[in-house]
Specification:
Length: about 325
Amino acid sequence: MNHAIVTDHLTKYYDSRCVVNGLGLRVPTGSVYGFLGRNGAGKSTTIKMLLGMAQPNYGRVELLGYELSTLPPEVRARIAYLAEGHPLYGWMTVGEASKFARAFHVDRWNQSLLDQILDHFEIRSRAKLRRLSNGQRANVALALAIAPDPDLLILDDPTLGLDTVARHDFLLSMIHLVQRQGRTILFSSHILADVERVADRIGILVDGVLRIDCPTERFKEGVSKIVLEFASKPPAFPGCQGLVQAWEVGRKLELVVVDFGDEQRRVIESLSPLAWDVVGLNLEDAFVAYTRGPRRALPVFTTDMTENQESTSDRGAA
């Protein structure tokens, strides 16, 4: 499998705090990769290291088959970046911003594509950027990012601050982008419904360590919530393989388990509950359940999540 992004043991410290710990990231060429984590997990720092905007303490980055430190200018021109908040010069018109950006990409600029996107969103070339809505500015920023026809597009929380309609339109544009064979998109987001809609693969950072790296559907299928009901106070849960967390809710015991199967079933039945049920989770619920667990050994999902679970202490740096 070809990879548009490869990192090996990528590590970043700020003073004595390890923000990104031994990151081994593999983003397949042609995929839409959702890069997730709670605030402070290390997502933005990783993106900055991918782009050369922050220097790692250890490790290496490879983009489109080239080491980042020796990336040729013609390859760098095939990489686009859309920053959080869609920063644009508000005093410019849309047309002026287009001319400004075009000066950096003379050989690859696709004005026809840019015009099609702006026309689709009914954004006039003479409009001042500061007078556009948040959603319009986001679409202008996206249009400028893809006008050079990049092979790799990196977006840092691109739908943050947009309303539901603007987010929907932005995501439709993003889906249209990947219809061109071979284009790769990596994007971080706090809006898990957006990720679920467009990402075919996800990576999740927990405290700077990559704990999840698998197809989106596989993660959703792999994390289950089990609810046990008892006649009185629930007994203490003895633990089982793949347990993320367990807590009491009145007369109920609620568990979050990775890859629920016969072993977990036997442990549950040994407690003799009045009734119990396995609840399927969407991506947001699975993400919340997995990442808010106690800071102890977490089951690890890698590749296709097939019989590959390790504890934090076993894995060390991801």
